[in-house]
Design a protein that fits this description.
The structure holds two protein chains of two kinds. Chain A contains six helices and 14 strands. Chain A is of the alpha+beta class. Chain A has three domains: 44 residues, Beta Barrel (OB fold (Dihydrolipoamide Acetyltransferase, E2P)); 77 residues, Nucleic acid-binding proteins (OB fold (Dihydrolipoamide Acetyltransferase, E2P)), CATH 2.40.50; 83 residues, Ribosomal Protein S8, Chain: A, domain 1, CATH 3.30.1370. Chain A has a five-stranded mixed β-barrel with strand order 7-8-9-11-10. The longest helix of chain A has 16 residues. Chain B is α+β, with helices and mostly antiparallel strands. In chain B, 26% of the residues lie in helices and 30% in strands. Chain B is built from four helices and twelve strands. Classes of the chains: A alpha+beta, B alpha+beta. Chains A and B meet through loops of A and strand 5 and helix 4 of B.
């Protein structure tokens, strides 16, 4: 079951099993974060809060905040800004993006789905575009803490599957805690309400069932 | 100018009725501010402080960035209404010093290398003051940092000891601070007995100093337990109401 720990809590004597969110001092494992302890394979502490730090391979939703040739500067809901090189858009065909024409492709405020290509030691973050990278149209972006993302997805995708089915929405969850929802206004309202509910109660058990009941009660009220 | 003498100990009790080794009542609440990444409200007797932590976030101006680790910024500030006579708002010599020592009291436990080039902002606002606000501020900031998910080795706990009427006592209040013979704020990691801040005002003999330090250490362990409980309780309510 869940065990909440705070920084400095003694977790174990087995230093060789120390994992993420822990540190070893004098051969003993201690918690490094305020979070939930998990000691299935290795001893880990999953944080209850904290900022997103990009790592290679993550899929994120970013927002263009600056254009400075030859990069777009992208906000990825993290202390670190990311950059997207023009070659990512010019790829494939022969076209070249000239100095003054970057804003024709992506403009300030545009949302994109991207993959973290690389993070160097200076914490410079490079992005690569996905095939379908542009987000737009009638949809809604909501932002939660990245620590709650696994909970919104649920064990092997159970929670998100249920959400998609019962809300009849397109939902895309990025690693940095940004969620894109597309559907009718009513459905989007409901979906975002439920996502926020999950984020708020992420630490409680039996959440999937409760969310299910909640969604069913909606249906009944309307039907 | 000579201070007027006040008898601070009467019949083995202090003016507010406490024993020599007794703390003032403590109340801790976690997550009181919705906008902050981590926050804590801390009461120590008549002291009321609130700590807010923001970050790690991008450091501005850029040239203050550290390529290897996060930079901690700590601001201790007293509200104009926190004391009997209105305090002139804004930083002054005293609050700048307290900000510095408090930051250094927390610095050793924060694992700054996990967030290079960022800033972690800690704001401590004193709403009501009754001696010992820097220690209350450190206690609050420590809990707020943990609540913000900042990687730390441990929590820091802090308390002051002092000397009144020739006796070493724990946790001075304002009257005892003003008319007593000495004040010694201490901050430490309770579990490992590591001192991260030690200041002294007034005169202590070596024996008094050692006794005071011991007293502070045991009080810090008490405070640590309260900080711990406050953090754990936040997530033990099975139906979290959330803050929003």
């Amino acid at each position: 079951m869940y065990k909440v720990v705070i920084p400095g809590d003694f977790l174990s004597e087995e230093a060789n099993r120390a994992g993420e969110g822990t540190y070893v001092d004098d051969g003993k494992v201690y918690a490094m974060k305020y979070g939930i302890m998990d000691d299935k394979e290795e001893i880990k502490v999953v944080g209850l809060a904290g900022k997103y730090v990009p790592s290679k391979g993550d899929i994120v939703i970013g927002k263009i905040v600056e254009i400075s040739f030859p990069y777009w500067i992208v906000d990825i809901a993290s202390p670190y800004e990311a950059r997207l090189h023009i070659s990512e858009l010019a790829k494939g065909d022969e076209r070249r993006i000239e100095f003054g024409s970057m804003n024709k492709y992506l403009y300030l405020g545009d949302l994109i789905v991207a993959k973290v290509l690389n993070v160097d030691a200076m914490m410079r973050v490079d992005l690569a575009l996905k095939d379908e990278f542009k987000i737009g149209g009638r949809g809604r972006l909501i932002e939660i803490s990245h620590t709650k993302v696994p909970r919104v997805i649920g064990r092997s995708g159970s929670m998100i599957k249920m959400l998609k089915e019962k809300c009849n929405c397109f939902i895309f969850i990025a690693k940095n805690g940004r969620i894109w929802i597309k559907g009718s206004d009513d459905e989007m309202n409901r979906a975002s309400q439920v996502v926020l509910m999950i984020a708020n109660e992420a630490h409680t058990s039996g959440l999937t069932d409760r969310v299910g009941d909640f969604l069913d009660s909606f249906k009944k009220r309307r039907g | 100018m000579m201070k007027e003498e006040i008898q601070l100990i009467k019949e083995g009790k202090r003016l507010d009725g406490r024993g020599f080794e007794e703390l003032r009542p403590i109340k801790i609440e976690v997550g009181v501010l919705k906008r902050a990444d981590g926050s804590c409200y801390f009461e120590l007797g008549n002291n009321k402080v609130i700590a807010a932590v923001y970050g790690p976030r991008e450091m501005h101006p850029r040239h203050f960035q550290d390529a290897k680790m996060a930079v901690i910024k700590y601001r201790y500030n007293m509200a104009p209404f926190s004391v009997d006579d209105r305090k002139r708002p804004g930083p002054d010599r005293r609050s700048v010093e307290i900000s510095k020592v408090s930051r250094e009291a927390l610095d050793p436990v924060i694992l700054k290398e996990y967030y290079p080039k960022t800033a972690i902002d800690v704001y401590v606002e004193v709403l009501q003051s009754d001696a010992g606000t820097r220690t209350a501020g450190i206690n609050a900031a420590s809990v707020a940092l943990a609540a913000a998910g900042i990687p730390m080795k441990d929590l820091v706990s802090s308390v002051a000891v002092g000397k009144i009427d020739g006796e070493v006592v724990l946790d001075l209040n304002a009257v005892e601070d003003n008319y007593g013979e000495g004040d010694m704020p201490v901050a430490m990691v309770a579990r490992t007995n590591t001192i991260t801040m030690l200041q002294m005002d007034g005169r202590f003999s070596q024996e008094e100093f050692e006794r005071g330090l011991k007293l502070a250490a045991s009080a810090c362990r008490t405070i640590y337990e309260l900080q711990r409980t406050a953090l754990l309780e936040r997530y033990s309510e099975s139906m979290g109401e959330g803050e929003a």
